[in-house]
Amino acid sequence: MKLLLLLALSFFSAQSFAGSCPDGSEPVKSVSADGSYFVYNCGNSSNDSGAKTTTNDFDDSYSFTISRFNENDGSKQIGNGYIEINDGIVTVAKEGRTLDAGSIDLFDSFEGQIDKKGNIRGSLKISVLIGVDPPPLVLVNFNGNIDSQLQGEWDDYFDVHIKLSPVAIFDEIKKSIDDDGIFQFKAFHALNAPHASNPVSVSDFSIIGKTSLRIESNHGECGQVPNWSDCDNDRERAELYYGDESWKTEKWYRFYLYLPKDYNSIAPSKMSLIQWRSMEPSKTLIMFQHMHAGLTFNRNGDTFVDSYIVLKSNEDLLGNWTEIIFNTNWHPDPQKGFMKVWIDGKLKVDFKGRTNQKKGRIVSLRYGLYSSWMSNYKNTFKTKKMPQRIAFYDGVKSEKNCQKLLDQNTCENLVSQNIKEYKLFIHNSDDNELHGRSICKISPASFETIKSNQGADLCTFR
């Protein structure tokens, strides 16, 4: 009887309230404070003793990622799209949305509100299980703040996280790197953790222009995509992803890199700062990395034989801006390929030989903080937690020739240089510091013929 009475009252309330606002408008449906039922309010009603709880202070478009999370499994992104906030009402836009755990039309069930403090309450009927048909749908009640994330419980095992970023932030970052020549900034890397606190932002700390990009990576900020998990493979990253480039064409690249004086090194783990990959099949070509020896250049073992050339020691690297000029043609023919690297105007690498895999027609750049083999750091220093890592990038640009990238005099100076020997970094996965015999001398000819063991057999120590 009580149940019938409650249903009757609920039906009567909903029917009598519809269209009954003093100004003749429809009442606005919102989620209750505890997220357990819907509330109907007249936005302009003078008889409404409770002041309007929504605000238009946050009206805008926001990109979002939606992920499922469990402490054991980590975070796995299951979709993304755009959220629109109009007069404090939060909805999911119909364009540009994806969902791996069901139809994108499920996003239409999202209803939410935002208050003056940026707190959002909402609900969404969704599945988080990929590949299950039909998908099991659960109404998830979300709570959170626009500056952090929304969180709700799907079941006793999975939580659901929604991470928002103003579209303006993406546009601000694009504007910050607008003078990038023939580069095409595409997106944040899909494996950036959706729950990361501040992975990419614009900073007024700059060496060129007015702004730079600040990249930050923290412990536990790992991401997943359907066919790969950084969380399961000892990795974390915060990277920017660039559009496709063609092989067999000469390119000139410029980067300004800044690692703070108090930068937290994760050596002997690997830290990639700049890398290129060839696609189909996907293989790493080269990496600029931070190691015990400082900034190094590696023709990566994915495609070549690992060989780490020291470009700049930590004493000179940390706390100073470093200019990196890189020139190559991504050619698979050992008779035609070449790679050159200048650091702060001085030639450090002059390699002639194969610079791509045989099927590497398309290559792409990604830069930022990409940590791998993190267990090396944890085991070496007896810790379970990775330190915070921060880097700044400025003046990132690419052109087809040097004169478009730099001025004529600078180009003439760069190409007139030659190199007599390299500093090769030899290391082990459990090194806790730079050892006396970690760096050796190697000739350019020897560097081009390294076949194994990081080139240690070709080294001279003096």
Structure description:
This protein has 462 residues and is mainly beta. It folds into 3 domains: 16-50, no CATH class; 60-165, Beta Barrel (Lipocalin), CATH 2.40.128; 177-458, Jelly Rolls. The protein contains 7 helices and 29 strands. It has helices spanning 2-17, 167-176, 314-317, 374-380, 402-405, 408-415, 444-447; strands spanning 28-31, 38-41, 60-70, 74-86, 89-92, 98-99, 111-114, 119-126, 138-145, 150-153, 159-166, 185-188, 200-203, 212-217, 224-225, 228-229, 236-246, 251-258, 270-279, 283-291, 294-299, 308-312, 321-328, 338-343, 346-352, 362-372, 389-399, 422-425, 439-442. An 8-stranded antiparallel beta barrel has the order 3-4-5-7-8-9-10-11. The chain has a 7-stranded antiparallel beta sheet with strand order 12-17-26-19-20-21-22. β13 (200-203) and β14 form a beta hairpin. The radius of gyration is 27 Å and the shape is elongated. Residues 1-20 and 43-52 have low confidence and may be disordered.
Entry summary:
The chain has 462 residues and is mainly β. It contains 7 helices and 29 strands.
Features:
single chain, 462 residues, Lipocalin, 3 domains, eight-stranded antiparallel β-barrel, seven-stranded antiparallel β-sheet, elongated, disordered N terminus
Q: What does the largest sheet look like?
A: 8 strands, antiparallel, barrel
Give the second-level CATH assignment, the architecture of the largest domain: Sandwich
- Given as residue ranges, the uncertain stretches (5+ residues, pLDDT < 50) are 1-20, 43-52
**Strand order of the biggest β-sheet:** 3-4-5-7-8-9-10-11
